[in-house]
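[worker-b] picked up task from shared queue
[worker-b] task type: protein-ligand structure
[worker-b] ligand name resolved to zinc ion; SMILES cross-checked against name lookup, match
[worker-b] sequence length check passed
[worker-b] input payload:
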Amino acid sequence: MAGQGVGFSELSSSSNGSDNTKRPGTPQITPSELSRPVNLQRIAQRKAQIKTYPVRKKLEKLGVYSSCKAEESCKCNGWKNPNPPPTPSRVDLSQPLANLTDPCRSCSHTLGAHISHLHDIPEDELNRLLCMVIDVENLFMCVHKEEDADTKQVYFYLFRLLRKGILQMATVTVEGPLGTPPFEKPSIGKAVLNFVLYKFGHLPQREWQIMHDLAKMFLHCLNHWKLETPTQKKLHSQGEDLAAYKQNYTRWLCYCQVPVFCDSLKRHDPTAVFGRVLLRSVFSVMRRQLLEKFRAEKDKMPPDKRTIVLTHFPRFLSMLEEEVYGDNSPIWDDDFTVPQSLSLGASRITPLTPLSERGDSLVATAR
Ligand SMILES: [Zn+2]
Ligand SMILES: [Zn+2]
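[worker-b] inference finished, payload out:
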């Protein structure tokens, strides 16, 4: 993944680069940094590594997140090591630190009594649970480091959800009043394709291709966009429905943003599950920051890309803005059809896939 980053995901965060020595789970890292490629890679490495541990060690690790089965009345929900190593950084984490007969610091029952349910479990399932443990540890860090109260609350909810998932050896799904994706129809992805057909469908192939690429770039940016917290939003909101924004922000955290670094949760692309309401709430800020970023980076781009990004893209965004905020735009019609006057090749009406992480010339430019 290294080297193709656009850095869009970092746009709204003030800290950039230079700290390649940090590890997830260490105190210096902040929750918003967890989704950066270098940290995602470390999380993936930890998950790969933990799968190579001896089974005894895996069971010990899971025991910390497993309820005690010694007697019905014991409510202990995780074995606590009575002799935690004084300098954890010095011990070999891949080796067992405890015996099955070691008593729990909390309930005094043995480690064995906390993991008795795991003995006949296939190793694949143990591995899945261990990956959830790593996600739980990262969420634990997020809960403690996050300063925004709304975001902290969501981290805590997800932390408890995954912890319960490990206890019950279940797969986790976010439930409750948030609803399930897709949250709006048509999706932003569909509406932006409609927009390109509606406004540029008549153009010759070469110009059409430019607009089509800009649309893909726009969707890519949106999929990597960090939404403002409801508190930040409130500071410059003009008569917007803040309760609705907060609900979408919570959905975005649970279904899009946290699953980036927490793959026990299913990830959805924002452009596939959100629609006009979300786009309206982020468009102005996003447009301004994107254009600022491109202007700042213009000297690093080859001349032809510079024209596309500095001339065509602002115009593209202005035209899109009208359709986003306008009351009667057809691009949001559920049954949008290509205008009759256009005879389009099939290639123009296939769904727009946002740029993948690699291989797109426009986005690579903005590195
Ligand atoms: Zn117990
Ligand atoms: Zn216990």
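[worker-b] attaching auto-annotations
[worker-b] The CA atoms of residues 255 and 267 lie 6 Å apart.
[worker-b] releasing lock
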